[in-house]
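Final paragraph of the annual report: two paired records, presented back to back.
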Amino acid sequence: METGKLPPGILGSLLQGIPIEDNRVLIRPDVGEDAALIDYGDRILIAKSDPITFASDLIGWYVVQVNANDIAAMGGIPRWFLCTLLLPETINEDEIREIFSQLVSACAAINVTLVGGHTEVTGRVDVPIATGFMLGEVDKGKQVLSSGAEVGDSIILSKGVAIEGTAVLAREDTETLLLHGMSPSSVEKAKNFLFDPGISVLKEVTLLQNKIEIHAMHDPTEGGIATGLQEIGFASQVGMEIKSEKICVFQETREICSILNLDPLGLLASGALIIVVPEEQTDAALTILREGQIDACTIGRVVPQTKGLLMRNKIGLLENIPTFRRDEIARYFAEHASAT
């Protein structure tokens, strides 16, 4: 099996086979939904788990962000966090303390309480691996699902694509990028994409909540913006018409993808948020985001499912939204490892 997410067909069949007998479970596990929803009276508990498996000097900070994003993408507020850390035998105490420091500070920055987890040194890993479990809350009736998109809706994208992938590649393969002519200043700027424009989507969700009717949101991660759009389409049983020229790709992302032969549409995309709103509220949503210093643009519209999931290319022709069997960064690292 290739590295990366399980193929949607396999994952979907596995998830559909899970018996759900507790009627408090409002959203069963499904492809495209960011988290589970559990009825807790006048409130809904949101539960999410997500790992960080790529080596990262900011793994403790990173794991908090990606789990908080999925809570926010369902309209919720992140509240409590647990983390399982699997650590290699080569790690030292100072490095462990640094990871813990990152966990504590990242949680504090978004008013999340670190309530527990598990730590283990094991010979089965050669880099630290962090798996986060985030709990959040949302008022009943305020939850937002990936499956809520309706025909005629506008599709808004915040910030741009492949923010996360750009930062990870700049941090993990600096030497290759410099050897192929990328300037040191551009590499450093790309490394800082984790913070500017940033991989957190909490700000854009907070800006729009209670001001705009949001039909669907999704935090695209593995498989990039292309996979994120497909997941909303599948979950909502709708089609899409996306304008490729409207999708923001940062110059540093273009340069890294060109050097490493990657497609930014299929590259790790945390930092972007797909927001689906009624057409008549599009301008208001964009104004709110821009006044809040969040770049955003309309990249397409929702169409009937029979029309398919389509993307209009730069010469005006409609093509299927590209499908990525695995994230471009997973493909790159796998090919790079086999070549060495």
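The closing record of the year follows.
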Amino acid sequence: MRCLVTGTAGFIGFHLAKRLLEQGHEVTGVDGMTPYYDVKLKENRHALLKKHNGFSAHLCMLEDASKLQTIFERSNPELVFHLAAQAGVRYSLENPSAYIDSNVVGSFNILEMCHKLRPQHLLIASTSSVYGASVDFPLAETDRADHPLTVYAATKKSVEALAHSYAHLWDMPITVFRFFSAYGPWGRPDMALFKFVQNILGGRPIDVYNHGNMERDFTYVDDLVEAIVRLTARVPTRAGDVTEVETDSSSPNAPYRVVNIGGGNPVSLLRFIDEIEQTLGIKSERNYMGMQPGDVPRTEASTEFLKALIGYLPQTPTAVGVREFVLWYREYYRV
């Protein structure tokens, strides 16, 4: 099939595009190559994708509606995966306008293009951050998510609302998936695992927030991509609920649904660090600190809706995922 993926030079978009290409699909990749983190890392991801004959790369900021329209019209995608975004919870405290431009305006442009060209299914990446400070665990798709704690989370929730309105008004099938703490090879340098491995190997202390009293529903990137690929075939309709589970978020007014992608198995931050140390064979020097603004002490995905839809749940243990990341990191940086 003809697929268009935004964010193909990014962490998750790269892995998704790679999987689609390996399955024989044509992939049109769109990425702005912003300097939020090492552009060379992004270029190297794209270089691997370019080894596939079915991949074409396009340098484009999503805010550039005219250029985006040209790419859409030339590729005429049957499936659209919108993963590009200004990432990072903490950076949104420093540069909030970047999140409005990329996440809100850029996503609006994607919705407009899909309205005009009518792909079979639009799939949009969101985040567990939209749940804010909720303590009603596990976090379910049908829970209220109206109190975001950061501009990043607020922009992602805004995109969810925009997407529902487009699905309702123009009968556009849209699936939104909320990621839970994705990690794995080719990860971003601003992510905890990357920072921990980098600092431990460099003999520098690691910052441990909330004095280590944190839990995350870590989701290995291959598991996440598997879930996205399976969701592709589950195209929403206006029929409302399609499963028997209470957390079925299918809209009664639009071909639209929200789905968590997480394993529902939170791991303590201290255990995560222990697994990194065991993999590296090096003990870390820990700098225990207070909670960061906008952060939450725990995430845990409700998984029953995902399981009901696709018969699959993320299952890679963090010990295995950490090992795979370290193997990649040592090879990539030759350390």
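The longest strand covers residues 121-127. This concludes the annual technical report; the extension proposal builds directly on these records.
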